[in-house]
Amino acid sequence: MKTKLLLFTFFLTFVTTKAQLVLLDEPQSEGIGTVYSLAVYDNDILYTMVKNNTTLLPGVFLSNGVPGEKIELLPGSTARAYFSTNVSGDAVRLYKDGNYTTTKAIYAGVVNTGALNQVYKLNNSRSLLIPENTFKPTVSNFNMQLVTNDGLVTIDTIQENLINKLVVRHFKKDGNQVNFTLPESFYGENSPNSFFKWNDKLFFRAQVSGELDLYEVDALGTRRVTQNKVSKPTSFKGVSPKSFLLDDYIYFIGRDGFYTNVVPGPVERNYPVNICFSNGDIDFGSTETAINNGDDGSLGYKSFSDADSPDNILGKINEKIIYFKQDGFSKKFYSIPNLEDLEIDAPQIDVFQYVQYQKKLYVFPKVGFGFYEDLFISDGTKSGTRKMFIPRYIATSTPAKNIGKIVPVGDRLYFLAEYSLSEKKHLLLAYDINEDSIKLVYQFPNDVKPNVNFLYPYNNGFIVRSRETINSEEKIYTLNAEIRAKIFNNSGSKTTRKNNTTFTYNSKTYHVDANSITFNENDQLKVQLLDTLSNQFKGNIINLPNNENKARISSLFYAVNTLKENNTFSASLTLGFDDDMIENINLTGDNITILAYDNNNWTEITPQSFNNNSKTVTINVSDFTSEVFFFVKYNGVLSTGISAIIKDNFSIYPNPATSFINIKSKSIDQEIQSVEVFNLLGKKVIHQKNKTFNTILNTSSLSKGIYFIKLKTKSQQFTKKIIIE
Q: Of residues 592 and 97, which shows the higher confidence score?
């Protein structure tokens, strides 16, 4: 295993000149106010926190990141809410750690009287909590465990004949509700637990007649997925699946056999605990070779590899399953098949942070003296595992006492680190994948004590929760966050005039004017700047218009909502634009129109006027529904060939390509600073920093199709179309 020595210096002048820490919200009056929940979806910050430290009554709020502009979603109530997003079963990885893709529906479990007894849904504009349904369980431990990609699934505890039972409630998108009460046979030593959604099916773990197995449930009933491989004595404890990893299969740790009577001969016992996998079908693995004396023909799972009693599965990288297990007084990390010790030392049991990202595993273990000193990086092989030192606090050379969850954003892995000195210091650090180094992003002031486990990416910056040292009051801060949403008020009239705001996106400004808006009285208009990676885009846009080239459609767009559903509005809007909205194109007012996506229909709007100096376009719209998306469309001639300047300066081959592209500079004056690849929607799919004259670009992760490659030098940038086959 390779070790990299990192010499590190904290440049505090960089911190004070660039970083911007903003207090977003705090409870009124002195006291011990608590933040109960916080979630970020696109430009919206949803949270529940105590409104007043004297009364300790909570409120549910929505914020655009501007202090003082929050909206209370349940005004007049004393509720608090816990938010969940939809879960898309086709991209789930590391089940317990999140990493879900999300669609537009956001649900909240709302507490009114000490129990989660209501489920609410936020409307598309994220402005209101709409009662989805109200539950009044007789047992006050209602648990909204799971949100699925075709509606909402809740697990509700009820009581029948003095027996607590679970009801699976499935609220479908079409408005229909399907309920299924798990039968009495499921309630013994262990009630059903570990509910999860995979491949459009709902699974859970339960113990029936002494056997602990995996089950599938739907409106027609339940069926067992995993079963023992040999005979079933009454003392058999089942497959006992645990530590689920949802990927191409359901991976789990489970028993891969049991004892059987061998005739003639003594009783043989076999209790192997391995990593197993299943496709959710009861006959999966039925043809597998019999273990010991027999095979019941319907197993539901197979053994992935003999993992020698693993404790937990971490992830799957390059067709290898990575897991850890206790080995004496420490944890060891392994990969299978081809069992390899990755040599990641974690002396303190179960005390480490990790994340799987871009086909690598990143692990921060806590060492024996209670500090975090190393970052381990592994591709799932022993030879591909290395470590680097985590920076110490430079003034005292003190190692980090606590490190929070790892948050991947682009080509960096961010994490909060706490250093225990005479007064605790908190730093935001980042591992830069391209430069292979750990950098200081920000040092928090002494009076801000962020919780290291609550770091949320938000609009090119972050949100943190901080607990004050003296009175334990919790506050919410933003760090370097850009403002991309604004709510325009009409002050009780039907028309509002000359509302305007300035948005920022990746440090560039976009000006928005609402010259006139007409809608129902006491309504509000919400304007947002979004991109095609947003939940709003993925959850709303059914299909892009059938243009001859989708590169004509901007990757940045405006979402406009009235805050009342089923409303309409008319407006004169002036919207900012620039070349970054559509990559590789020089946008001018002479060659653009605006495409509006309204109620699943596309409408092309001829602008009323342009201002090429300020890069703004004005459009008039009338009688649009409560949710519209405005895209800039380029109508000029698209360049399809290689430019002469790139021929003279760079060699890019092969093209078409499959798994790699060679890029070579032909001039000593053209050192490559970075390489970026964009798809036809303008989405950046590869970003590689180089500072070299020759580089190899790995394109194996790209799907077949047309892309644009952008090369940047110190003084220029060059673009070329490439084809991946």
A: 592
Asked if residue 185 lies in contact with residue 207, where contact means CB atoms within 8 angstroms, the answer is no
Q: Quick one: 592 and 576 in the same domain?
A: yes
* Residues sharing a CB contact under 8 Å with residue 445, sequence separation 6 or more, in sequence order: 21
- The CA distance from 572 to 557, in Å, is 17
**Coil, strand or helix at 185:** helix
Domain end point (choices 252, 283, 300): 300
Q: 346, 348, 333, 432: which is closest to 384 by C-alpha?
A: 333
Residue-wise DSSP of 235-292: T------EEEEESSSEEEEEE----EE-SSSPEE----EEEEEE-S-TTTTTTSPPPS
User: Scanning the structure block, which residue is given the tokens 């317990």?
Assistant: 96
Range 180-189 average pLDDT: 75
Torsion of CA 252, 184, 108, 465, to 10 degrees: -50
Distances (CA, A) of 524 to 318, 494, 564, 573, 622: 49, 10, 8, 15, 16
Strands ordered across the beta sheet of 302-305: 242-246, 250-255, 273-278, 302-305
Residue 600 contacts residue 539 (beta carbons within 8 Å)? no
Q: Would you state the pLDDT for residue 596?
A: 92
Q: Please state the rounded mean pLDDT for residues 22-38.
A: 85
Whether 665 shows a pLDDT value over 70: the answer reads: yes
Q: Using CA atoms, how far apart are residues 378 and 386, in angstroms rounded to an integer?
A: 7
Query: H or E stretch including 122?
Result: strand 116-122
**With 60 as the cut, is the pLDDT of residue 646 above it?**
no
For 589-626, b/e burial (b = at least 16 CB within 10 A) is: beebbbbbbbeeebeeeebeebeeeebbbbbebeebeb
Domain that holds residue 656: 644-724
Residues 117 and 212 in one domain: no
Cis? peptide before 337, omega within 30° of 0: yes
Our count of domains for the chain comes to 4
- Shortest CA distance to 664 belongs to which of 650, 684, 679? 650
How far is the CA of 143 from the CAs of 112, 147, 195, in angstroms? 14, 12, 11
Least confident of 72-76, 325-329, 709-713: 325-329
Residues 195 and 176 in one domain: no
How many other CB atoms sit within 10 Å of the CB of residue 157?
Answer: 18
pLDDT at position 100 over 70:
no
Whether 695 and 659 share a structural domain: yes
**Residue after which a domain boundary falls, among 139, 156, 181:** 181
Q: What is the pTM of this model?
A: 0.80
587 to 552, 577, 632: CA distances (angstroms): 11, 8, 10
Same domain, 48 and 170: yes
pLDDT digits (tens, 9 = 90+) for 152-162: 666 666 777 77
7: pLDDT strictly greater than 70: no
* Whether the predicted pLDDT of 725 surpasses 90: no
pLDDT at 617: 93
Residues 544 and 502 both lie in one domain: yes
Tokens 């197979």 belong to which residue?
Answer: 302
- Count other C-beta atoms under 10 Å from residue 136's C-beta: 11
Highest mean pLDDT among 172-186, 190-204, 218-232, 580-594: 580-594
Please check the confidence at residue 85 and state whether its pLDDT lies above 90: no
